Amino acid sequence: MFDKILIANRGEIACRVIKSARKMGIATVAVYSEADAGTLHVEMADEAIAIGPAPAAESYLVQERIIEACKASGAQAVHPGFGFLSENAGFVEALEAAGIVFIGPPTGAIAAMGDKIESKRLAAEAGVATVPGHMDLIEDDERAVAISREIGYPVMIKASAGGGGKGMRIARSDEEAREGYRSAQNEARASFGDDRIFIEKFIEEPRHIEIQVLADAHGNVIHLCERECSIQRRHQKVIEEAPSPFLDEATRQAMGAQAVALARAVDYRSAGTVECIVDADRNFYFLEMNTRIQVEHPVTEMITGLDLVEWMIRIAAGEPLSIRQEEVSIDGWALECRIYAEDPFRGFLPSIGRLTTYLPPPESEVVRVDSGVVEGSEISMFYDPMIAKLVTHAGDRDASIARMRGALDAFCIAGVGHNIPFLASVLAKPRFIEGRLTTNFIDEVYPEGFNVDDLPPEDPALLVAVTAAIHQTSRQREAQISGQLDGHGKQTRDDWVIRLGESDHAAKVSAQPRGWLVTVDDRQMEVYSDDWRFGDRLWSGVVDGREIVVQVERRGIGYRLFHNGALVETRALTPRTAALAAQMPVKEPPDLSRYLLSPMPGLLVSLAVAEGQEVKAGDQLAVIEAMKMENILRAERDGKVAALHAGPGDSLAVDQKILEFD
Predict the structure, then answer these.
(1) Which single residue of 29, 160, 497, 646 could bond 196 by disulfide (Cβ 3.0 to 4.6 Å)?
(2) How many CB atoms sit inside 10 A of residue 322's CB?
(3) Which of 457, 475, 502 is the last residue before a domain boundary?
(4) What sign for the dihedral angle of Cα 8, 14, 16, 18?
């Protein structure tokens, strides 16, 4: 076994590898860019070595610096995590030449499976079903259009070296094929240094289901059942679960057998994932094989009890698998939600900044948080916007969903936008609860995009009652401190008007042995919490017989409450103050409709218009790159460009002016 390994990655996956290595008694070495100095993975590792500037192309992707760090630290092996150099066959060869073990598959398997075109050829030769398409390289956008017509729309345009949703576009017309080819090629070149593109048939109503495999150097190959990964946005997975609510046992075994056959065909070794697309009749087709640990691997670990990272290390050290296929079983149900730094109310635009508050729910045997940040960490524009992965486990799917919804309520994040409201909304949708999932789920369930109306319906009286109880407790405490309550019968007032959004609710509060009896608009509810204290961000208790968790932040005479995905403002007013407040005029927001504003922080890659140019609604105006993704901004109405306020190459802040219309 190794004495010391280096993790050639950052963030939560680096922390995850360190935890398994520490459990095995193996020392760890972290590498970090200038932007990551002082981050959690650097603090957790036994040693840390700086490898360059913030951009990944100048640090985490520079093979020579990783190898130099191995030599300087004496690390015997490298775990690549996911992304970066994890599927780079040249990197593996360089490590081997330096006498360093790669904790992953051999170069032949990486080269074969890392190239989507070659992998499909090999899969077909191994008897694995593949999606119809054009696997040869495509020279230009006009050739892409011709091929798309031959296959028949809709088609999927993909980067050969792609992954993580980058370099992928769906085209349903010639125009979309041209634009999709160019955008996919640009993203692939920027993200992977490889702009080769291929096209395949896009299957309608598809599910994305993948099989986890483990293979050692002694000829043993097993699969660890499946993961359902159909909830995706822009081809990026959002919620994963294991097992799938769709597969029957026969399909599960057939998919597992083909995954094992493919792994054997390429002489695979280590943990890997065979991704498939499954249609409504449970026909499945090979998509690709990821020759690395997957972001969503925790759900498999939760239902099988196996540590996949530990097994990657053991296999790399030459140990044989100690578990046989017939010993693999499914225990309960696990879900994973990816917590991203993005604003779901603004089209999921990336959000960067400092985490002024970061309080994840407590971890246990049934709740797991994989993260690479702490309170005060910086979410940078240079890397993936993932904040954490939240995983829950229970005896069945319904219980796991309920546990996940409670854990999301207890996840406190401030300082950057995050997608917890969206995740809460998805989990509450009847179609999700019923397990009717496809990769089109988000587009179909949120056809107009995500907005506040998509949040789970909630009884407003619950939050009014919590506000009234907290406010009454606060006022009594203040009165005791100031001497207004002296034990001789003096009392604070007990009637309030709770303003929730634009609605006012009468609330009367009276003390009970365990908490409060709150009457909200003639409805009586018992409200109590056994462990809430002043200053706590989480109010966990019972309201009207229902256990709930509410995030609470005091704001003067008001409160900000977060529950069930919704962030609401409440104010506790006296009846007289409420009457006067109702007479206050409302300030009109400024008219910014003449400006094109940057919806996110990022780099202005290009402008498609000039001053004085006429534009039509839908015309492309600009391209902004943020967190390694290209975002096209289009005109919302007809108009004429009056002035340009930014140019290509400029770094933009949120809401910065790009151009102005007449």
Answers:
(1) 160
(2) 10
(3) 457
(4) positive
The pLDDT of residue 556: 78
346: burial class by Cβ within 10 Å (0-12, 13-18, 19+)?
A: middle
Q: What is the 3-state secondary structure (H, E, C) of 195-258?
A: CCEEEEECCCCCEEEEEEEEECCCCCEEEEEEEEEEEEECCEEEEEEECCCCCCHHHHHHHHHH
- 209 contacts 276 by C-beta, under 8 angstroms: yes
Please tell me the total count of domains within the chain: 6
Out of 457, 479, 506, a domain closes at 457
Please give the C-alpha separations between residue 89 and each of 94, 104, 224, 229, 598, in angstroms, as whole numbers. Answer: 9, 11, 25, 27, 38
Whether 117 and 253 map to the same domain: the answer is yes
Based on the domain organization, do 47 and 13 belong to the same domain? yes
- Does a structural domain hold residue 559? yes
| Single-letter amino acid code for the residue at 487 | G
Token pair for 353 = 């900044």
Two tokens, residue 420: 């917890």
- Per-position DSSP letters for 579-610, written without gaps between them: HHHTTSPPPPPP--TTEEE-SSSEEEEEE---
Please give the model's pTM, rounded to 2 decimal places.
Answer: 0.82
Give me the residues paired with residue 53 across strands: none
Instruction: Give yes or no: residues 180 and 274 share one domain.
Output: no
Q: Are residues 475 and 541 in the same domain?
A: yes
Q: CA–CA separation, 211 vs 259, rounded Å?
A: 7
Query: Domain with 356 in it: what CATH number?
Result: 3.30.470.20
Q: Are residues 115 and 260 in the same domain?
A: yes
Q: Are 51 and 62 a contacting pair, CB within 8 Å?
A: yes
- Residues 565, 408: contact at Cβ < 8 Å? yes
> What rounded mean pLDDT belongs to the chain?
92
- Alpha carbons 458 and 197: distance in angstroms, whole number: 46
| CB of 207 closer than 8 Å to CB of 246 | yes
Structure-token pair, residue 662: 């007449």
Q: Which two tokens stand for residue 108?
A: 């032949």
109-118, 278-287, 289-298, 649-658: which has the minimum mean pLDDT? 109-118
CATH number at residue 141: 3.30.1490.20
User: Could you tell me whether strands 639-644 and 657-661 are parallel, antiparallel, or unpaired per DSSP bridges?
Assistant: antiparallel
Q: Assess contact for 272 and 288: CB atoms under 8 A.
A: no
176 is catalytic: no
Whether residue 367 lies inside any domain: the answer is yes
Rounded Cα distance between 95 and 57, Å, is 19
Strands 27-33 and 4-7: parallel
Q: What is the pLDDT of residues 345-396, one digit of tens each?
A: 988 888 888 999 999 999 999 999 999 999 999 998 888 889 999 999 999 9
Here the CATH number for the domain that contains residue 506 is 3.30.700.30
Judgement on whether residues 163 and 219 belong to the same structural domain of the protein: no
**Host domain of residue 480:** 460-581
Tell me which of 288, 296, 336, 625 is the catalytic residue.
288
3-class DSSP state of 635:
coil
For residue 586, tell me if it sits in a domain.
no
Same domain, 216 and 306: yes
Please report where in the chains the tokens 């908490």 appear, as a residue.
Answer: 515
C-alpha to C-alpha distance for 395 and 460, rounded to whole angstroms: 31
